[in-house]
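Students often ask what a 'structure token' actually looks like in practice. Rather than answer in the abstract, let us consider Thioredoxin domain-containing protein, a protein of 236 residues. Its sequence is given first.
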Amino acid sequence: MTARRGPSLNLILTAVVVVVAAAVIGGIVLANRSSGAGGGGGGVPDERLVPANAHTLSTVEGGKVTLVEFLDYQCPACASYYANVTKKLEQDYQGRITIVTRNYPLQMHPLALPSAKAAEAAAKQGKYKEMYHALYDGFQDWAVSGKTTSSDTAAATARFEEYAKSLGLDVEKFRADMASADVQAVIDRDLADGQALGVSSTPTFFLNGERFTPTAKTYPDLDRELRAKIDAALGG
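Now compare that with the structural description of the same chain:
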């Protein structure tokens, strides 16, 4: 009588490899699901992208699309994006998507922090969006000196106060708020959230929790690329 044989060594090893591979692949999938920025089921809490009191340029309650930008008001790239992409995008998608802006002043820009404080001080009087536009529309007036980045805090602050006055703000309150701990705390929170999300440069965008990494080389192509993703998210 032939002795009954158990599973061969090769069969056992093959089974082990299959099990380990399945576990590894499953772990990778789970990790990828947990490493998103929050919008559509990622592991990073939504409040890291959109805190309860976040500033918005367009708001749609319960909307399908949220675009978040981490920005630096003295960043030339941010100003170029604003002039070539985001300003028109804000107009064209007003009331259709939620657009959130977050502070991310870079140390390489001497006036990045003061300008962020100006935006936050204006927000305390209900004029955040207006100051956001004033800062970028007036970029050449305060952010640059000739062909270099300006570091003249006094001149920039005077310009910010001119913007505040033109917007009908209480300039004394605006000045006090710029220097306040509350305003600094908002900026610190934005910086901490951005760092937690891996933001290292500006502008950095997240569309429905997914980081937008453009492949386009020109602003018109970049504009089309971003709009195509927004339209797809809208289901259009």
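One point worth highlighting: The radius of gyration is 24 Å. Ask yourself how you might have guessed this from the sequence alone, and why that guess would often be unreliable.
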